[in-house]
Amino acid sequence: MAEPTYEELKTAMTREEVLEQQLAIMALPDFNLPTESWGPTDEPMATLAADAEMLADLSVKVAGIAKSGVTADARTDVLTIHAKDVFDEDRELGVNAIGTITLTESSSSPQSWTVGALIVTSRVDPTIIFRNAALVTLSASSSTTASIACDDVGTQGNVQAADLQLVTEVPGVALSAASGTGWITQTGTDDETDEKLIARCALKWATLVSTGPSDAYKKWALDADATINRVGVTEDVAADQTAGDPSVTVYLATATGAPAAAVVTAVDAYIQERRPLGTLVYVAACGTTSFYLNGSVTVKASKRAAAESKINALLDAWFAGSSIDVNGETVDGLGLDGRIRIAQLVEIVMSVSGVTAFVPKKLDGTSIYRIETDDVTSSANNVWTLVRALTYVEVT
Amino acid sequence: MATDYGTGIASVGVSGGLDMDPYWRKATGPKVVAYAVARRLLVGKGSLWWAPDCGFGKAGLMGLALEGIRDKDVPTIERLIQAECEQDERVLGASVSVSWSSTTETLRVDIALELGDGPFRFVLLASSVTTSLLLSP
Fold this sequence. Notes:
The complex is a heterodimer. By secondary structure, chain A is an alpha+beta fold. Helices cover about 30% and strands about 25% of the residues of chain A.
């Protein structure tokens, strides 16, 4: 048997594929077993199915081990270990949301909650649970504030104040909080994605040289703040640094567009500590440009809802700069190069199950984008904001 | 010339369903079909990932025995069992008779399979914990 290629090693077999291969082997002349006549409940099938399940599970593990040595392919915990071991990079861990609520007692009945006993949840998603981290005492006919923390790390804890509710209602006790997300004192963040950790690892080498290549600035910006997911770097070799003109400008973008001023300030401070001597660096938020996506999507009626939801999810992720899976291939999220390739846009929409045709149209809703010639461009170091105006045509 | 239904390993009723014959005795002729059909009726539909369309009800006949049966449901159950029997491509047709003993909480299913060589009868007795398979000689 030939040594497996890396491509074969990293591709796990499904149990269905294993079973098919087992049956094919047993039907070979050496064995000549009547596999075609085995019914689904016959003993050989049950035995083979059990083996297939085990072998497929083993195949997943083999693929995981194979990919653990390759930065671009490693995922989850294995990637965390690989990043630390090879690049000395730690995955940025998320934090849970913490906020302050107000409890008001109006029935002359004092209340108190020991640590963890005051449980608040979201009306929208009751699996999101908050608890008090300290004793809360509420005197009769009075109000008090309480700090509550989400049980789980992540952005899901950034709940709107209007959606907060006590899990067990206490007669005479009302909950209130500063409107919107104003009640939150620590915003919940997710663990760093595999995609961003891989990007930071790949850029690590650039930080080890003293001349400051553009990848070094990208790495520093990504390191400095967890929300930064895209970085653009420009160089002005003719800059008059004595007059304060920067020779390097670093543009920052988050998944939702331009970062807040505080983030820019923090990243600036981080980079200034590391920049090569003699280089004047300016750190700025990226600009934003709207992309109006008109056009019609023809979709099978039975799959309309699922297809529309999937298209929205794919496009939102793509515009946010995240890699997406399109027909089994990874398509990189939109960066800061100021270009949208129409062919890629069409491929993304057409990859969704149930979609039979897609005609992308321009802002006027009439002119059609042509794949070969109508790629959309804007200034570099701008992020795109998607304005969707797709119509759906259902067919049977 | 007798129809070749294939060769399999005989099944025996045990606690929890049907098991392979402990002596690995081979089965041929219409009994092979009866064993296959009986096993098909004892697994829930969708429980075999390699054959998701195979099976009867949520948890097979034993699951049905566990839930109990109302008299008015008997005709529907008979039709469903008949349809599942006919999923085996060797079965040309099937007639099914179901009776339920609420005293012993046992389900009795009399099945007559119409095969290429003629009819073949067998009986499946299922409770929530055990199964018996009685074949024609």
